[in-house]
Amino acid sequence: MRLRELFDGLHSGQGDAEVSSMALDDRLVLPGALFCCVEGFERDGHDFAPSAVERGAVALLTERELGLGVPEVVVDDVRAAIAPAAAKLNGNPTQALKMVGITGTNGKTTTAFLTRALLEASGQQTGLLGTVEQIIGGAREATARTTPEAIELQRCFAQMLAAGDEACVIEVSSHAIALRRSDAIDWDVTVFTNLSREHLDFHGTIEEYFAIKARLLVEAEVPSVINIDDEYGRRLAAELTDVTTVGIASSDADLRAEAISTDAAGSSFTAGGIEFRVPLPGDFNVLNALCAIATARLLGVDDSVIAAALPHAEVAPGRFQPVDAGQRFAAIVDYAHTPDSLENALRTARALTPGRLIVVFGAGGDRDSGKRAEMGRVASELADVVVVTSDNPRSEEPGAIVEAIIAGVADTGGATVEVVIDRSEAIAAAVAQAGDDDVVLVAGKGHEQGQEIAGGVVLEFDDSNVLRSAIERRLP
Q: 417: Cβ–Cβ under 8 A, 6 or more apart, which residues?
């Protein structure tokens, strides 16, 4: 595609070129590429423009003139210009796909998996982009981040169309919204699950975090599904017009779950006079299911199809995932890594626990440090035994992170609190003291396959595998 076609209003004096690809990283530039000079948090892409030209970039998207002998498109905000250009270069694929965007602090992944399952059950081949994996034309691949950069996103959408996908469900992170990765997407339905403290190292305040999340739904101007049991969800619903509200506690919700019963295998409930079952326990998963049901309805899926498919829906790995190696106590792995999600997981586990509730968790380094003490408080109030350990310490000292968690432990909680820095040893310590009627919950990493330490090194680590091995060593 010609550079002029990618950027409407390009002056003739700026030159023209045939563009075959786009890149943000000079190391990924191919001949014929448009190199986008993004000013990042640590590096300025303008500094790498000469390298990009040497590698074959035929044009530059920049915020200042660089004079490197190739056409330059100078804009006020490179990030704002990338997504529309990437969409055009790929033939505006989201205009042909049914697009579902799901945002919120917790529940995005579960809601995305459930929504995809319901759409697939209705005969709509559906792609997925999210925290755990991407699915394009039925082919699965692990992902590096919740929402990729706009260039990769639009390329994925084009690949979905080529592979026969009719719809796409995508988790939309707050970073993606703030950094304009999710611009230029022709949404059909947007979903807001909930909002609680997370990523304040990036957003600064909870109100700014909310404003960014809300922007997805406000700017999309399409039908939305919103959980109004969440106070921020209720605020957001009041700002919009075409909204389907869901809830459990909210008597005014359009789709409200009642008569909820839960066990280790899942939750049953009625909503709108229809009986449903979701293969995940806990009220928070019922709310996720309600969001998926409401979304599927908006996309034309019949209630009978939803009710038949939901009990058998594929669930995301690491989301309240049981680990059974033949032991006589329950063992669960969950991705809970915020105060709110940890509380939800602990309350659900408590309801399934005849004996003691034992939790193992930590907190990530180089992230919002304010949530650490809150997580300590929640764990000490709701569990009987708390084993505080390392999560993904990154560049921080693991012991310092643990100390911040311990600082929040409630004096009135009554829990026994232990510190075992090594995560493998911490899981083994929890397993070693579990009785027949106890539940061991390992929280924080869920589906993750590695542990990130100093220097950007990622060690192989899978909570479910480590937990299973600890159980097997204990068995007779």
A: 380, 386, 388, 406, 409
